[in-house]
Amino acid sequence: MHDGSGRIVVQNLTKQFGPVTAVQNLSFTVEPGSVTGFLGPNGAGKTTTLRMLLGLVRPTAGVATINGRPFEQLGNPARVVGAVLEAQSFHPKRTARNHLLVYAAAMDVPDERVDQVLTLVGLGGAATRKVGGFSLGMRQRLALATALLGDPQVLVLDEPANGLDPEGIAWLRNFLRQFTQSGRTVLVSSHLLAEVEQTVDQVVIISRGQTMYYGPLENLRQSQQTRVLVQPADPHALVSALQQAGMSQVELLPDGRLAVTGADSRQVADIALQANVAVYGIQQEQVDLEQLFFQLTSGQYAAAGMNPYGPPQQPPAGYPPQGYQPPPGYGGQAGPQQPYPPGQPPVVPPGQPPMVPPGQPPVTPPPGYEQQGYQQQPPGQGGSSGFGGNA
Ligand SMILES: Nc1ncnc2c1ncn2[C@@H]1O[C@H](COP(=O)(O)OP(=O)(O)OP(=O)(O)O)[C@@H](O)[C@H]1O
Question: Which segments show compositional bias classed as Gly residues (predicted)?
Answer without folding.
Answer: 380-391
